[in-house]
């Protein structure tokens, strides 16, 4: 932590080491987000993802390697995070969380911050609702797929997002319960609809969208920066 201490000073590093963060979703955005939070010195973390590595993930996801194909992303990321910081207190939940299970995890975890990197709409909306209800500070990542320009990535409140289809769907559901003050990372960059394939193979989603290596990582690093800067005050 010497380089981080040089930048932040001992007091802020000690503050980060005392914090507890939840990251749900360990794909292109969530994997790098969890890693950057761990590398910043967070003392306690819970990571959640039920998915296994597919080689189609290898263009953009931290846990996706030929050597990890078909392994649980949560287990691969756990090994990586513990190798970065053997002292971290890490809880690994290899589940797709929804409904009351989400509430149980958030309520029992006593988290200082939560990160939504979920790419399934119903689970994403439910997670955001529960974090807001339980007053857990959080940031939500919106759609990184189909985007190419890193200069357009922004941090805002959900109510201020625009030109993002996922953001529109999330806003629509959360407006019904009067929730809008959610920090969000999004890009208003237009998507070429020719790069989206509607297919049953994408279940539980309805489509597959083209991706480039760096964009999900930029979303993930931006989410991590929100967490780290907020926790330092």
Automatic annotation (TrEMBL):
The THIF-type NAD/FAD binding fold domain extends over: 7-230
**Origin superkingdom:** Bacteria
The transmembrane residues are: 20-38
The alphabetized UniProt keywords are: Membrane, Transmembrane, Transmembrane helix
Task: Report the SUPFAM superfamilies cross-referenced here.
Answer: Activating enzymes of the ubiquitin-like proteins
Q: Which CDD domains match?
A: YgdL_like
Pfam families in UniProt: ThiF
PANTHER family xref list: TRNA THREONYLCARBAMOYLADENOSINE DEHYDRATASE
Question: What protein does this entry describe?
Answer: tRNA threonylcarbamoyladenosine dehydratase
Species in which this protein is naturally found: Pinibacter soli
Q: What is the lineage of its organism?
A: Bacteria, Pseudomonadati, Bacteroidota, Chitinophagia, Chitinophagales
